Recover the amino acids of this structure.
């Protein structure tokens, strides 16, 4: 399995991570405007209250005490397949200066292992075609296409 470079540590998202550039890190992925600490904390608390559903993880650079990578596992509860669980991997982002060092792969490994430990029968994700090769290297396969309708 992938090992992180020295000085980097993977842990669950913490209630104080608003102050460690969590939103600036997510802006690597998509629009992630500063919603302010109060709104950030309210969203964090909602995720915690939905016990066993949201598993956000981060990689922290201990020298700067800033977040450099993140990803979330969401556990979906189903009626099918004997009331099965499905793991969804969402919102993977590695800060631009830290890409290509194995951080993304480590996050996918950890979220996939967590999904299996929780008991999901499969783990799935949506991605841009340009990231397909990255996910193939993480052990995922292309199972078709994604559709969306934006509001
Ligand atoms: N195309 C081909 N290969 C790639 C790519 C790519 N776009 N990105 C990484 N790889 C390869 C690496 O070369 C490496 O190969 P190796 O094991 O043979 O050396 C392997 O995949 C692992 O690469 P990492 O260093 O772990 O990749 P990184 O830490 O840069 O993370 C990621 C990849 C997440 C795509 C990162 O570049 C990123 O944050 N990009 C911007 C945001 C983004 O697109 N996020 C993913 C959205 S999809 C989702 O969230 C479900």
């Amino acid at each position: 399995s992938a090992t992180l470079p020295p000085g980097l540590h993977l842990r669950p998202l913490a209630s104080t991570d608003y102050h460690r550039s969590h939103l600036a890190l997510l802006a690597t992925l998509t629009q992630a405007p500063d919603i302010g600490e109060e709104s950030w904390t309210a969203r964090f608390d909602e995720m915690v209250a939905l016990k066993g559903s949201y598993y956000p993880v981060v990689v922290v650079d201990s020298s700067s005490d800033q977040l450099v990578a993140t990803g979330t596992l969401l556990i979906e509860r189903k009626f099918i397949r004997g009331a099965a669980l499905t793991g969804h991997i969402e919102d993977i982002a590695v800060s631009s200066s830290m890409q290509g060092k194995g951080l993304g792969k480590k996050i996918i490994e950890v979220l996939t292992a967590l999904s299996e430990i929780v008991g999901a029968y499969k783990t799935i994700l949506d991605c841009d075609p340009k990231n397909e090769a990255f996910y193939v290297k993480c052990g995922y396969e292309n199972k078709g296409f994604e559709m969306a309708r934006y509001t």
Q: What stands out?
A: The beta strands are 8-12, 54-61, 66-77, 85-94, 122-124. The chain is about 30% helix and 25% strand.
